[in-house]
Amino acid sequence: MEKSAYLDFRLEGLAKARIGEIDALHQLLREGRGLGFWRKTYLKLVGKRVCAVIFNHDEQMVGFNYYYFRESEVKDRIIHHAFIGILPEERGKGLATALQTYAIDRLSKNKLTGISGNVKKTNTTSAKMLANVGFVLTDDPDDTTNQKIYYRF
Hints:
Layout: E1 4-6, E2 9-13, H1 19-29, H2 37-50, E3 51-55, E4 61-68, H3 71-74, E5 78-86, H4 95-107, E6 114-120, H5 124-132, E7 136-140, E8 143-152
Parallel strand pairs: 5-6
Antiparallel strand pairs: 1-2, 2-3, 3-4, 4-5, 6-8, 7-8
């Protein structure tokens, strides 16, 4: 993913040298849970293409989102949205929207057909942002916790 900018923030694909930073940010945003060996390995191998990060003017990583392929969706060239997170003190500035828009733009250039994912029904802020950038949200009668999301390229 090539570099881009939003306000005073820089967006780019994840560099291998930044795996430690993204793991620390993931732990902060996910109640102490680290990325784990397999996700770190995956991001070391392809992070530049499947993980978008955003930095403030002090070069601090303040947010990221990443994607992976589900076995059931590979043949249809659909990538799965795994997670998006922004530091609490940076929220409300449009950074998640900028990050998601940036990732959609970059992923759309890779012969993919769409992005799938889930969002908790209680996470109305994320659901609103996803709808605003073009995701379609649908209820799954078998899942009372999440809504399915889909973005078609």
